[in-house]
Amino acid sequence: MLEWEVIIMGPADTLYEGGILKTRLTFPQEYPVLPPTMKFITPMWHPNIYPDGNLCISILHPPGDDQYGYEDAGERWLPVHTVESILVSVISLLSSDRPNLDSPANVDAAKEVRENWEGYKKKVRRLVRRSAEEAWD
Fold first, then answer.
1. Domain assignment of residue 11, given as a range
2. What is the CATH number of the domain that holds 67?
3. Which of 1, 19, 52, 81 would staple 128 via disulfide (CB 3.0–4.6 Å)?
4. Ramachandran category for residue 18: left, alpha or beta (phi over 0 → left; psi -120 to 50 → alpha)
5. Which residues, including other chains, have CB under 8 Å from residue 28's CB and lie 6 or more apart?
6. Is 56 part of the annotated catalytic residue set?
7. Catalytic residue among 25, 44, 49, 56
8. Percent of residues in the chain assigned helix, strand, coil, to nearest 5
9. Which residues constitute the catalytic centre (predicted)?
């Protein structure tokens, strides 16, 4: 009940188009007071996704003020958020023309976005293609 497998279809007209992205959404006992966590099972290359697949996105950060000052309390988890609002935020993240590099979860991916955009796009497309192939195996 507290752990869901979620499949996200790569949004059209993005680097992730055609991808079949498997994730795990894990709800704490204190849900909806505390946010769930989301982890990509499909290998991903994105500045806001840790190398182990854990997603770093404001809507899933615990409620309250950000101790580092990157986010307003209103950008963080609120009990009114739903699975739908989480998924819309994730799809929006993947649809962005340029990833947010302000506080990257994956420093190497963020560095590649800054220094080698074409190389970054090539790596993402390769992973997306592999995700689609593995989904049909």
1. 3-135
2. 3.10.110.10
3. 19
4. left
5. 2, 34, 35, 36
6. yes
7. 56
8. 35, 15, 50
9. 56
What tens digit of pLDDT does each residue of 40-76 get?
999 999 999 999 999 999 999 888 777 766 777 778 8
Identity at 135, one-letter amino acid code: A
**One-letter amino acid for residue 101 of the chain:** L
Supply φ then ψ for residue 8, to 5 degrees: -110, 125
The one-letter code for the residue type at 89 is S
CA distances from 78 to 64, 68, 81, 85 (A): 9, 19, 6, 11
Q: How many domains does the chain have?
A: 1
Structure tokens, 107: 């420093």
Query: What's residue 98's pLDDT?
Result: 86
Instruction: Tell me if residue 9 falls in helix, strand or coil.
Output: strand
pLDDT tens-place string over residues 7-49: 999 999 999 999 999 999 999 999 999 999 999 999 999 999 9
pTM over 0.85, yes/no: yes
Q: Cα–Cα–Cα angle for 124, 62, 8, nearest 5°? A: 30
Q: What is the identity of the amino acid at 16? A: Y
CA distance 74 to 64: 8
